[in-house]
Fold each of these.
Amino acid sequence: MDRNYENVIKSINHLRELHKTFLIKDNYSSEKDFEVYLENTKKLAKLFSQPEVEIYKQLYREKSRQMILADILEYILLSRGLFFLTDGTTKHEKKQLKKKLFIKSILYFVNLLMSYESMTVDDKIRKRFLENLAKSIPELKKESKYEELLNFKGKVGLTQKESDASEDLNKYFDSILPKTAGGLWHELLVFIFLIRYDLGYVVPLLLSQKFISANSVLVPPDFLIITKDKDVYGIEVGIKKEI
């Protein structure tokens, strides 16, 4: 996965350099163009800083962090990653091979996600991960439960009956992993099940968890299936939303 993560970082750096270049007046031939860009940057920054907006908090924060991390992985695997299935070939045999390789890659990745769950009972790797994470993201050390989890000995992140930790510490542990307790890998396995059995066109809505209209919000299921008969079915992985 290293190369995938590196290329996501390259995309972020690309956009950052584009923005930084346009913030320097000497880079322009036209002073007016600079003033227009600067004015809109200031207005956008002010808008994004309003308590009603603060989009940056939706991109990384302690609260709902496990969902944010899962979104990044789903973007890599089920959004941009899907393009390799259709790029550059019209031959049926080549398409089937790509499909098999895609399914295989998802299964290997699910195995990695399952391995991450070992931190629930393995104090050593959990502590090492938290130390390494704080080196990359120093503000993590300021989070209220960081030190407690760093030095905690015992089982954490399990059900309250099975865990040695408090409810608050269990929740904090969940925040350092992408959709723990199988949340993410259940979704990935359901996705490859649906495409493997050729039930129709599979529309992942994992990155579109809110549909908005002028006056309301609709929470869709995780997947839609458009059958060959043009019927549409919603597939929800997990509980609660279907209620």
Note: The mean pLDDT is 89.
Amino acid sequence: MLTSTPVRSNQNGIMYMHNNGTYSIFNVRTQRFQYKGTLNACKKAWNRHFKNTRQFVAAGNHRYL
């Protein structure tokens, strides 16, 4: 049986580490696993497609509005 441990997550996706040494990224919007592979490949995909940028994390929470 394949067990999974969440490694990182936000409102865009969840990255899982599986007990067989592979990683995968679950896309929250499409409700499907979008990327599967090694740690390095999934980290690159996370940084390219799933990480947050500061301008979208706290909308309206700026000092000089």
Note: The chain has two helices and four strands.
